[in-house]
Amino acid sequence: MSATRGTRVLVLNSGSSSVKYQLLDMRDSSRLAVGLVERIGEETSRLKHTHVDSGATREWTGPIPDHEAALKAVSEELAKDGLGLDSPELAAIGHRVVHGGQSFTAPTVVDDAVLAEIERLIPVAPLHNPANLTGIRTAQALRPDLPQVAVFDTAFHTTMPESAARYAIDVATADEHRIRRYGFHGTSHAYVARATAELLGKDPSETNVIVLHLGNGASASAVRSGECVDTSMGLTPLEGLVMGTRSGDMDPAVIFHLARVGGMSIDEIDNLLNKKSGLIGLCGDNDMREIRRRVDEGDEQAELAFEIYIHRLKKYIGAYYAVLGTVDAIAFTAGVGENAASVREAAVAGLETLGLAVDGDLNAVRSDEPRLISPSDARVKVAVVPTDEELEIATQTYGLVRKGD
Ligand code: ADP
């Protein structure tokens, strides 16, 4: 690895038709530029770029045929702000990679063997890993001299014991097809668990936290002494909580039933459970703001959807409380967790005997800062901790390349 003198890290999150990016200066973890390219491959691709210092935003619509063109366009936008990718200030590029399987337990500098392994994992992450790979290869072509670091969504969960990671199915079949619970959103869970410990003034290695990442996708994790011991997503992000469009947990026999009795194909069932279930399947909306508005108007369908969402959440809080034995805090994060006071209140309602409660006034406060919303004498703290996956990717990336110097 080449020695790094720069202090900037470019974070890339490459999806199948989009690239989100942030350039950070790791001396003070500040953002220099943020932006995204979407609808790659269409005539109406869109690039939105913000230079943070000046607040200036530039938007551009036109055809961007592929990821290579997208990254070149990003590079040009950064150069206009004096932040070009050719700058010696750039220390590394950190890539979000969704699935690292059991192979990657930590951020990893990309080489040919790493690329091959990410490729080998495509069958367990067919939607995400190919796009992540394209992003890495494109960035490599642009700056072949620079360390490219892969930061895996699954890595934080690789500390799960076998008792939590294995499904109770035939071991040989599971091993042959690499079927186990990998978990996702790990970068967020890692960041929030650590930030929650800091908020409590405790060392992460001495803190037990239940993290509830409630965005459009949603997952819970049980973190003991800074390490993940269980998480709600599994082989894929379909397992666990009720999500915006995913069902989360259900009897797997529903799938056989839909195929045998409903005459649906595997692809149709896959689409139903991932895209047309969860909140949107239950009430036609997946945005919690809209669901709450409908609940306030007395809409019974929205109310039932909300109750099912909360019931599942509460089950996971109880389950992870039991897994951990001792819980220091429950932390709410991501779009719903950070913003929906009604969800936070309902999720812990009635759990006073577990030492859990929310203070109505504190819960109503809107803020971008990590904060406690439990009464001051609460045995178990309830926290709202805004997640920052890009900062976590940049921190892990920078930490790794500095270590290599
Ligand atoms: P993802 O990254 O999974 O797309 P986010 O973490 O950005 O999701 O969360 C998006 C969700 O957050 C939206 O679908 C919406 O339901 C919810 N959300 C955002 N703002 C609010 C708010 N003020 N009140 C309630 N829910 C909100």
Condensed summary:
The protein is 38% helix and 20% strand. The chain is α/β, with parallel strands linked by helices and 405 residues long.
Description:
With 405 residues, the chain is of the alpha/beta class. It folds into two domains: 145 residues, ATPase, nucleotide binding domain (Nucleotidyltransferase, domain 5, 2-Layer Sandwich); 189 residues, ATPase, nucleotide binding domain (Nucleotidyltransferase, domain 5, 2-Layer Sandwich). Helices cover 38% and strands 20% of the residues. It is globular. It binds adenosine-5'-diphosphate.
Tell me the radius of gyration.
22 Å
For the biggest β-sheet, the strand order reads 5-4-3-2-1-6-8-7
Low-confidence spans = none
How many structurally independent domains? 2
Query: What sequence of helices (H) and strands (E) makes up the elements?
Result: EEEEEHEEHHEHHHEEEHHHHHEHHHEEH
Provide the CATH architecture of the largest domain: 2-Layer Sandwich
**What characterizes the major β-sheet?**
8 strands, mixed
Architecture blueprint of SSEs:
Layout: E1 8-14, E2 19-25, E3 30-38, E4 45-51, E5 56-62, H1 67-80, E6 90-97, E7 108-109, H2 112-120, H3 129-142, E8 148-152, H4 162-165, H5 171-176, H6 186-200, E9 209-214, E10 218-224, E11 227-231, H7 253-260, H8 266-275, H9 278-283, H10 288-296, H11 300-324, E12 329-333, H12 334-339, H13 341-348, H14 360-364, E13 371-372, E14 381-384, H15 389-403
Parallel strand pairs: 1-6, 6-8, 9-12, 12-14
Antiparallel strand pairs: 1-2, 2-3, 3-4, 4-5, 7-8, 9-10, 10-11, 13-14
Helix pairs in contact: 1-3, 10-11, 11-13
Adenosine-5'-diphosphate binds at residues 215-217, 244, 286-289, 334-336, 339-340.
